[in-house]
Amino acid sequence: MKHLIILGDGMSDHKVARLGGKTLLEYASTPAFDRFASEGRSGMLHTIPSGLHPGSEVANATILGYDLTEVYEGRGPLEAASMGYEMTADDMAMRCNILTLTSDGLIQNHHGGHLTTDEGRDIIKMLDGRLGSDRVKFLPGVQYRHLLVIKGGDKRIVTTPPHDNPGKEWRNLLVRPIDENDTALPGKMSPRETADLINSLILRSQELLAAHPLNKRHEEQGRPVANSIWPWSQGYRPSMLTLQQMYPDVRTGAVITAVDLINGIGHYAGLRSVHVEGATGLVDTNYEGKCLAALEALRTDDFVFLHIEAADEAGHDGDLELKIRAIEYLDRRVVGPIMRELSMWDEPVAVALLPDHPTPVEERVHRAEPVPFTIWHKGIEPDDVLAYSEAACAKGSYGTLHLMEFMHEFMKIK
Ligand SMILES: [Zn+2]
């Protein structure tokens, strides 16, 4: 038996008054989801370990069977993997935003005036040339999202996500040790030395960026200037077993996603990353291309993780119509065609459909609430669930599963 997970990022939701008290999954026209649920077995799944934030990286890695309380190392190491940077045991990697600070000392935004990838890369290359050393390395990523690697850095420091803190005084949010009494481990800087180094990089980046020609252009165009770096979400190389190591039936696997963090998880999970032309992470994404890529991968691989971001983005935008459309596109352009195709295959494939977390349109943030899931394969004995929705799946035969239980149940299907 091969295995395919179809993940609609953020697609579950709350009841919405404008939809007559229905959730979006209940309201949207989803004949393929409903057929999938009525021919499969359903349940609810808690995807966020207590104490961790409901981030997509946390939820997706949990769904893949990882105990995040053991292996979570922040976004930095996942993004390093997605950029093709192989971390060594000595490295501490951090997400490094380029952002805008106001002249009176506040965080104005987390994106430096929506930098293009070329603009962001120019800045990061300049910073690496001026501030890079044997210890400090800046690596270019996408738009305003880059990577800072510190050799011998100690992760026992407090860093702050800038997108959660617009309007706050940045000096109060500089890096500090979790505990001033923590001393240096063998071969590493102490947490205090690590914090001081990062803070000095932040201050020196501000001096260098104040004079950068790009910011003159931004000022002329009336765009916010990109006048500081902001490193956060630090961690070491994750000690994750690959899926091949955890599940011997998985000889090879693939991940299909437009999102860097998910590609990073896939890298550590031992999945090859399949690039799909026109995969954007938005509702204009190439659904047919992703669907074909998943079917193509299933011809050679034992395990495929197909991640579709669009519903989450629409949820963050608070755009009800767009999120409904994202759900209907996933139904019509992915789940329907995949079910039709796999029904005709001799090779049996177990398919799971689920979101990673709700991103309710009326709240516009991730919630750590259980999500509905359905598992289907040819010949499965269906339960009584007839539609794919939060309320319907809650009555499914799997009941409510917790964290890694989902992957264990899914991979049990032989
Ligand atoms: Zn997500």
From TrEMBL:
Record has DNA-binding as a keyword: no
Pathway: Carbohydrate degradation
EC number: 5.4.2.12
Domain Metalloenzyme: 1-401
The reaction(s) this protein catalyses: (2R)-2-phosphoglycerate = (2R)-3-phosphoglycerate
The keyword Isomerase is assigned to this record: yes
Gene Ontology terms describing biological process: glycolytic process
GO molecular function, one term: phosphoglycerate mutase activity
Keywords associated with the record: Glycolysis, Isomerase
A Pfam entry, by short name: PhosphMutase
Membrane-crossing segments per the record: none
Function: Catalyzes the interconversion of 2-phosphoglycerate and 3-phosphoglycerate.
Family of this protein: Belongs to the BPG-independent phosphoglycerate mutase family. A-PGAM subfamily.
Name the record gives this protein: Cofactor-independent phosphoglycerate mutase
Organism: Duncaniella freteri
